[in-house]
Amino acid sequence: MPNRGDMPRHKLLFLFALLASAAQRGAVVDAAIVDGLQVGFYSQTCPQAEGAISDIVNNEIGMDRGIAPGLIRLFFHDCFITGCDASILLDESPAGDVPEKESSANGFTLVGLRTIDIAKSTLEGMCPRTVSCADILAFAARDAAVAAGLPNYDVAAGRRDGMRSNMDDLPGNFPVPGHHVPRLTELFGQRGLSQEDLVVLSGAHSVGGAHCFMFSNRIYGFSEEADMDPSLDPEYAERLRQMCPPRKPDDDPQQAPKVKFDAQTGEKLDNAYYAELLARRGLLTSDSPLIEDPQTRAMVEAFAADDALWQQKFAEAMQRVGMLDVLVGEGKGQVRHQCRLVNGQEEEQRQQPQQQQKQPQLPWLRQPQLPWFRQRRQHQHRPLRHHPVANLINGFFRGFH
Length: 401
What we know:
The protein is mainly α. It has helices at residues 9-32, 49-63, 67-82, 113-126, 133-147, 181-190, 195-202, 234-243, 272-278, 289-292, 294-305, 307-321, 345-351, 388-392, and strands at residues 159-160, 209-211, 258-260, 327-328. α1 (9-32) crosses α11, α2 packs antiparallel against α4 and α7 (195-202) crosses α11 (294-305).
């Protein structure tokens, strides 16, 4: 075995980073990761649940490959804020709060909501009021990752659904494009996740893509000194310009072109993301800091060189994410009858005067609306609260669908 003096510096840094992340996990994970979940949780109460969800997810992905990265992103965005409680699926809480899904970190960029609705409706027909929306989302994210090329891994279940969703929970608690590694590491640490988890989960950007407006600041008017971000490969930046013309004030963000994170294996969940980073072809602003920091760069280099290592680490990180602040046991949360509504809201809506009701619509048939133009249902007399910080939030996986 070589002694420390013979080991390359970046390998030493990676080993130190792994040790540091392990120490960090031991120090903070207990506060966020909840015991009580188990593999095969529905083996007696709804034994076909996981198989049915897998079939639905694969069928949906067969029609639209963008569903796979969308479901992984949906799962992460749910768990990172108030824990894996399916709060991101709620249209509105009983208190009338603007929900997480309509924050500027989510909004029309969310993909996979229809898939979750289909899965929930199917399971309600098979095993009424048994399988939580939070568990459906965790299973669906796993199935999406497997469909995109990851080896299968177990998902422990037993989560119950939360009863509130508020976009106020995002500002200050969610990664934004301008964050560098120390701040990103701090945010992940607050959620019981390590710096290694940060780098590993970033690899989800090996599938999916981003709308041009999410990175246009890097290729037009970057600074007074440079029109394009100098951390980007110049040829890559020019290609991005060809695909993404300069923005105009009246451009509709929903109609903006999309660019794949990985032009070569953009539908396969693999370690190509790390090779692209090292070649200075990371699409989003939040990607570049990972190769600028010595510790995280060592991890990037290690994962770029070993796809099997990264796949194993990714599955393990997804399992840890799925245990964040979960609601377990009777008396904690509920098993929602619909993933979009807290139990009891359906009856409340039926009891409202007919003239005050809007025609019910499934979420995938609704006209998408930007959060700052959203008209409040049942609370139109209350103004929509504005959050300057929230408007800057890009989201760790924002363009990831």
